[in-house]
Amino acid sequence: MVGTQTTRQESRFPLGLFNLLAVLEPDFFGRNLYFLWWLFLRAASGLYFCITLWVILVKRICGDCIVCGLVQCYLKICFQIIFSASRKYLTWFQRVGRRLIFGKGYQMQDTNTTDNKNKVIKFKESAWKCIYFLSAEFLALYVTSKEPWFNNTRHFWVGPGDQVWPDQKIKLKLKGLYMYAAGFYTYSIFALIFWETRRSDFGVLMGHHFATVTLVVLSYIFRFGRVGSVVLAIHDASDVFLEIGKMSKYCGAEKLASIAFIIFVLSWILLRLIYFPFWVLWSTSYEVVQTLDKEKHPVVGPICYYLFNTLLFCLLVLHIYWWVLMYRMLVNQIQAGGKISEDVRSGKYSIYI
């Protein structure tokens, strides 16, 4: 019953043919999961055919540069559609959540109470996010770990060879990482409005998603992809442990939740409060001025500098804000003998909502 209600609620968001089928038959996707992917691939192949013809026409008129932008925009839209369509698989996470939260006899228990419903809904949302953050982190490390700018921030702006910003080559795998992240965070804005459980930090999360999407798009346009790939790798790592801790909390595994929370806090301090400001922001605000020739970019240079750094410092402010909440949570956890309480981001003393 819970799965049916969730499907109906999620199908309110206009997804064209997907939404029409969900309205006509609410359990359609639950019984025909593979058909969802077949339908998406058919729609994508038809769209691809139309885009290909359009690209050939534009290429003849405008050249290769605009064509590349069109193709990359198309890939971002595809990832956004995939993330949106994949939410239909949350019914599977819902069944797993019931089993883990209520035990083997979950079918015999009353799981339709308000508290139990909220636990299951929050579990499946955390499971979905955990899969994304884990896959995105592996992808970001695959893209950046063997690159020179992963260990030396000066290579954000110069090298290898005679490459100097903004005339730096962007590898295909870096473009793929950007399309993947842009699709997810664009989807996250709509998910926060239409699908996810409304929390008291709605405005902060919405600001974070907007800042992230803007950073991803602008950093790609202004050739700050090297910086952006490292920022994505920094941010996704700690979020994995956050979602693992949430799921453990919902399942009643307090020890595992405490361990995950401690790792999450340590990774947050190391990556977001130390490495991010003292390496990444230092490079984007100071090192870049010492490395590049400002006279070559008298107009575009200052615009990119102030706009990009303003958004990055906004992220840092959000990091500090959430760290204050985590610190309160940590103090209360110590006072409670290691047991995690409610959610600090919802106005209570915990990080697990």
Automatic annotation (TrEMBL):
One Gene Ontology MF term: sphingosine N-acyltransferase activity
Membrane topology: Multi-pass membrane protein
Top-rank taxon: Eukaryota
Location relative to the cell: Endoplasmic reticulum membrane
InterPro entries cross-referenced by the UniProt entry: Lag1/Lac1-like, TLC-dom
Membrane-spanning intervals of the chain: 35-58, 177-196, 202-222, 256-279, 299-324
GO cellular component, one term: endoplasmic reticulum membrane
One GO term (biological process): ceramide biosynthetic process
Keywords assigned: Membrane, Transmembrane, Transmembrane helix
Annotated source species: Gossypium aridum (American cotton)
PROSITE patterns to which the protein is assigned, alphabetical: TLC (PS50922)
Protein name: TLC domain-containing protein
Keyword Iron-sulfur: no
Main localization of the protein described in the UniProt heading: endoplasmic reticulum
The TLC domain, residue ranges: 121-335
